[in-house]
Amino acid sequence: MDSGVGGLSVLAEIQRLLPNESLLYVADSGHVPYGEKSPDYIRQRLRHIAEFFQQQGAKAMVLACNTATVAAVADLRERYPQWPLVGMEPAVKPAAAATRSGVVGVLATTGTLQSAKFAALLDRFASDVRVITQPCPGLVERIEAGDLASAHLRQLLAGYVQPLLAAGCDTVILGCTHYPFLRPLLAEMVPADVAIIDTGAAVARQLQRLLAERGLLAQGPARESAFWTSADPENLRIILPLLWKKSDSVQSFAV
Ligand code: DGL
């Protein structure tokens, strides 16, 4: 799940690593962006979505959303102690290990950057580096609208990236699952030696570990991936081919 289409960047990594698994995806686009909503609101949404996945018989759930993870993963773990749940967090640890300039930038939502979970992540892994955080309101809405390259988006993104470069960041963390879709645009804006990192592949590996530990890995073949959205299914049908591939399986998710 994700608040919208951002989690498709994680879904792609999961499908690459685990091609035998049948994938169900909920885009909560009727409630996007999560980044500016209260943790309580997000927890309610996640309870609703988790229940839906349970009803669908999902053997594991991935919160392919940093903002949902900081707000709700602890609550879900308490409710479903036996269910493999994978959350996301910005790649602070690998970035702190990789930076040469000692300055790391984080692009993420306001909700993620303001959370206690993110503060704890910095305490744990980033005590030796300078971390510049940059909330990016507006980016998620552009991507949800299928805009990956307009002049307006370019300007918005440049405004968020410039302060990081000015501060000397040589490593930029994409701390929101929507942002990997902006990699091509970002790559045009930062010098070639600035590393841009996200955690989609690491999350896929964590899912693989959890499933393997429990003997739950599928032997295949996978069913066609199925998609639900809490916004108008027609919107998702239009955007899916841009971010994923064409799919006939888009249904309405009861709001
Ligand atoms: N894709 C989400 C994340 O990883 C959040 C986007 C939003 O709804 O604000 O944080």
Automatic annotation (TrEMBL):
The active site is at residues 65, 176. Substrate binds at residues 2-3, 34-35, 66-67, 177-178. It holds the Pfam family Asp_Glu_race. GO terms for molecular function: glutamate racemase activity. GO terms for biological process: cell wall organization; peptidoglycan biosynthetic process; regulation of cell shape. InterPro entries: Asp/Glu/hydantoin_racemase, Asp/Glu_race, Asp/Glu_racemase_AS_1, Asp/Glu_racemase_AS_2, Glu_race. It catalyses: L-glutamate = D-glutamate. Provides the (R)-glutamate required for cell wall biosynthesis. This is Glutamate racemase. The lineage of its organism: Bacteria, Pseudomonadati, Pseudomonadota, Gammaproteobacteria, Pseudomonadales. The gene is murI.
